[in-house]
Amino acid sequence: MSHAPLNALVEQIRGLHEATPALARFAPWPGDLTPNDRPAAMLPAADLVAALPADTAVTRAVQAAAPHAEWRQSYSEREVSADFLNRYGHFELFGPHGHFHSSELRGYIGIWGSGLDYDWHSHEAEELYYCLFGTPRFRSKSKPETTLQPGGTRHHTPCEVHRMQTCTTPFLCYAVWKGPGLAGRPAMEPQ
Ligand code: ZN
């Protein structure tokens, strides 16, 4: 098993995090990262990553790491559609259960295919999304809706109920969680 692509990705993400004021203000880059030997686990979502235009160093690093990543989903088909599960996934780059262990901060790489509706959901941890690719539309019950462009960010307070819809392209993100509920899971809102 090769760790080099994950090491290269965490270095790319550290550079992005430290150079992006919204990310650096949200939380400093964690000082407690230690390598954590997580197994690779594939999902169809990894193919969406491979198909993205390789036009930035971060995207290329995500593409190189994707075959070595432990891809996960937070939901079952009882909660979301089969189409959603076939075209969405994330991996925890660093955090309580990540490829690099941290108890300070949790950082994910996530991808959603085009035309998906990630319905109303919430989680205890405070969150910042950073758009690496795509133009997703975010809504929450307590602030105006926003369509992100690459380089844009979206903040959610603890337990803020939010929703995300992808447009005509996939959405690739770096998402960061902090605070209470760091090791928790998101939950869909009851219908
Ligand atoms: Zn969220």
Write up what this structure looks like:
The protein is an alpha+beta fold and 191 residues long. It has a single domain, classed as Jelly Rolls (Sandwich). The protein is built from five helices and twelve strands. Helix 1 packs antiparallel against helix 4 (57-65). The longest helix has 16 residues, at 4-19. The N and C termini lie far apart (43 Å). The model has no long low-confidence stretch (mean pLDDT 96). Bound molecules: zinc ion (ZN).
Name some characteristics of this structure.
binds zinc ion; alpha+beta; 22% helix; five-stranded antiparallel beta sheet; seven-stranded mixed beta sheet; 5 helices
Question: What's the short story on this structure?
Answer:
By secondary structure, this protein is α+β, with helices and mostly antiparallel strands. The protein has helices at 4-19, 21-26, 45-50, 57-65, 82-86; strands at residues 34-35, 88-95, 100-101, 106-112, 117-122, 126-133, 137-140, 143-147, 153-156, 162-165, 171-178, 187-188.
